[in-house]
Write a structure and sequence with these properties.
Cryptochrome/photolyase family protein, about 500 residues, mainly alpha, Crypto/Photolyase_FAD-like_sf
Length: about 500
Amino acid sequence: MHWLFGDQLGPHFLTPGEAGPGPDTPLLMIEARSVFRRRRFHRAKAHLVLSAMRHRAAELGDRVTYVRADTYRQGLERAARGRPVGVHHPTSHAAMRLVRTLPGVTVGPARGFLVPMADFAAWADGHGGKRLRQEDFYRWVRRGHDLLMDGEQPAAGRWNLDHDNREPPPREVASLRVGRPYRPREDDIDEEVRHDLDRWERDGDVSFVGRDGPRLFPATRAEARRALRRFVEHRLATFGPYEDAMLAADPAMSHSLLSSSLNLGLLDPAECVDRAERAWREGLAPLNSVEGFVRQIAGWREYVWQVYWYFGEDYRRSNALRHTAPLPDWWSGLDAEAVRANCLRTVLAQVRDTGWTHHIPRLMVLGSHALQRGWDPAAVTDWFHRCFVDGYDWVMLPNVVGMSQYADGGRMTTKPYTSGGAYVNRMSDLCGPCVYRPGDRAGEHACPYTAGYWAFLDRHRKLLAGNHRVARPVRQLDRLADLPQVREQERARGDTPP
């Protein structure tokens, strides 16, 4: 038998090849209830994952044995009955530990990524294995896969078009004038999943956070392909300039919303970047938008997957800043109504209602607040994993520990990604209606991000003084006449909702 995990749902997991199943190999899928008991997941995420698994099983028909069990181990024992089982490389350390302890299970190479893990390890070892710059890796992938290349040179002579992709949102508009993102239609399988989740909650078996309205993200290969086509044809052209911008009433803007489809295995990254490059070469989208999209998939997504395995399980315990504060209940419960700061309230409500926000709210609103408050990076990582529809351990561990919380001390990134309210004000329409003022550090209207930024630098000035990316603002601390007031104000604020 060949075992398909719930994030290995696309056709590229069944094509012949190294350790791949033959065309007639019986297939196995296991729905393990214990997954939802261990963590308090977002309800919309639980619905999406189970819907995708059950839709895939319905497509595969009699070829697949679909087992609903308490644990993976029980499901495997019930279905395999001692027969040998093959499986593609799982996507988490925990899953890999499990399959390695199961008798008769053979693990093959990973699928769903562009670079074989051995090739990355060789590349990383060649760079000393320490400061592995994503930009260097991205260029290596571009060359190796002939992505946006003109011979040996990058298209139009530039590797990185980030400078063209940092525009604030258009002023005086509530949303971008772009085609709407693809939205799937629910069916009987979605209804069955929602009925089961309701029953599990009523029985006290599991507990969720967030809201589960009509499904917003693809659960089948056909839906994912429609979403990709809609993005490339109607949204890709305007993606680049505003990819770092935020609008309160338009959380999707021109973003692709394909991350959950990629991470469920419904789409292959190669088809996504190839489709985007074809749009540029056919004159349907500008290079800066296409390069920005390719960078997200062939650059950052691929990089995060690779360093997750290269750094190993000890990376999870990284805590260079020694942050240990627990997550407050209002944050864990997605209680947006408890928050007064408009940016944080808006973004937390988006997570509560959909299980998704794009990368800048994640990094510069949610992650920045957690970093400034000194919350335990492992708890923050777990929260992102549970509360986002595209959240998986391999995704969130490097993104949160390495980038968002700077817990590895700079192993992945060159500086902590946090800022005062001026950044949010420049890149969004979120500050205008807020009770706080982005320019105020202290006093009744002190912005929690502005005050939090200076308090964070003050707490860690000894560590950060030698970092050339933030040395200048650290030196400015001694010129802040109100720094003692800011310190006392932020100590008193603690973890109360800002």
